[in-house]
UniProtKB/TrEMBL annotation:
Membrane topology: Single-pass membrane protein
MF (Gene Ontology): sulfotransferase activity
Protein's recorded name: Sulfotransferase
A single GO cellular-component term on record: membrane
Chain's gene name: LOC112293313
Origin superkingdom: Eukaryota
Gene3D superfamilies, sorted: P-loop containing nucleotide triphosphate hydrolases (3.40.50.300)
Primary localisation category: membrane
Glycoprotein is among the record's keywords: yes
């Protein structure tokens, strides 16, 4: 197998520089316009959609309730702000011994792709990462109410960016944070998608507002004294939601992650398909359709709003294949959980 090549993605310095120092410009310039006209985009998205659906039908079989089995690798697709860290730390990793857990891979893939010996991988990478892993993988993920996920994304971006206010200027905000206790813990929020884009963006905004406030150069509108509208301190929620950065990274982020089309994708078609679906929203229905088909092929899909119930149902499906390593987890889950039937959490998710 050829050596692993990095996934396709935008250059962080270039992306952030454009967002922070330049007026926002249209992604499609005059010279590039013919490439992204409606006919070209429709053909490109249709070709990608057909290829993805063919691959799903060819390589996988739709798993029916009662016959769900963990394959060689259990891949937890961690969609940001869905409670994935809690789900992984408190539940999934306790199904496996330490030797069976893959190295933490939130900043980059940390396993030998030619001979992966681990059985549990958790990552913010989108579904395209599976094309780089030779093991047959079963996929688990969590979904969350989209409005709550967007609010949580905004809150977390502001929270992490604000931690740097102790520094004198934005130029010093890249200084390293205190080192973790062991090499396996050396994962910084600033290296994880999508925070490696969102946090620097929000950092610049917070520093700009702080400096303007201290120098008395700008008369900011009065705050409504709500968490989401404090313009003298940080970008209000409404401004954030309509900003191109949020459109690129947050809007429909879960759909793009499940479809394998984030701006951190390993799929060479990702840039074209993302741009086309942005220019022509109706083409996005094909992206959504692929994402929904991927959910149907997953081993299990849980709900953030029903964490414990999701964990209990999932455990009941794979109890004969996984050994719970934590006694506390055994007590939480119990041994009486039954496999869900019609109208259960997992059935309702399939119909979304």
């Amino acid at each position: 197998m050829p050596p692993f090549t990095p996934c396709f993605g935008f250059s962080l310095p270039l992306l952030i520089t454009c967002f922070l120092t330049c007026p926002w410009i249209e992604l499609v310039t005059a010279s590039a316009a013919p490439l992204y006209n409606h006919r070209s985009c429709e053909a490109a998205v249709q070709e990608w959609s057909n290829k993805e659906k063919l691959a799903l039908n060819k390589e996988l079989k739709l798993v029916q309730p009662g016959s769900r089995k963990i394959l060689e690798l259990l891949f937890f697709l961690h969609i940001p702000r869905t409670g994935g860290r809690t789900y992984h730390q408190c539940f999934l990793k306790n199904l496996y011994s330490p030797n069976d857990r893959c190295p933490r891979s939130y900043d980059k893939l940390r396993l030998d792709l030619r001979q992966p010996s681990c059985k549990l991988l958790s990552s913010h990478d989108d579904m395209s990462i599976l094309s780089k892993i030779p093991s047959r993988a079963s996929v688990v993920t969590n979904l969350r109410n989209p409005v709550n996920r967007v609010l949580s994304t905004y809150e977390f971006s502001v929270e992490v960016a604000a931690r740097f206010l102790r520094l004198k200027s934005i130029n010093s905000s890249r200084s390293p944070l205190p080192l973790a206790k062991s090499p396996s813990q050396l994962v910084s929020t600033l290296t994880i998608w999508p925070w490696k884009y969102l946090v620097p963006f929000m950092q610049h905004d917070i520093f700009t507002r702080r400096d303007a406030r201290l120098e008395g150069k700008v008369n900011w509108p009065q705050s409504t004294n709500t968490t989401y509208d404090a313009p003298t301190i940080t970008m209000p929620l409404t401004e954030f939601i309509h900003h191109p950065v949020a459109h690129e990274l947050v809007h429909n982020g879960a759909t793009f992650q499940v479809a394998g089309l984030t701006n951190n994708s390993c799929n060479e078609d990702a840039v074209m398909v993302r741009k086309c679906s942005s220019l022509y929203p109706k083409l996005g229905h094909q992206v959504l359709d692929v994402a929904k088909r991927r959910l149907d092929y997953m081993l299990f899909v849980g709900l953030t709003e029903k964490h414990q119930e999701s964990a209990t149902i999932f455990f009941s499906l794979v109890a004969d294949q996984a050994q719970v390593q934590s006694k506390a987890m055994q007590e939480i889950l119990g041994q009486n959980a039954s496999v869900p039937g019609e109208g259960s959490t997992i059935t309702s998710i399939r119909s979304v």
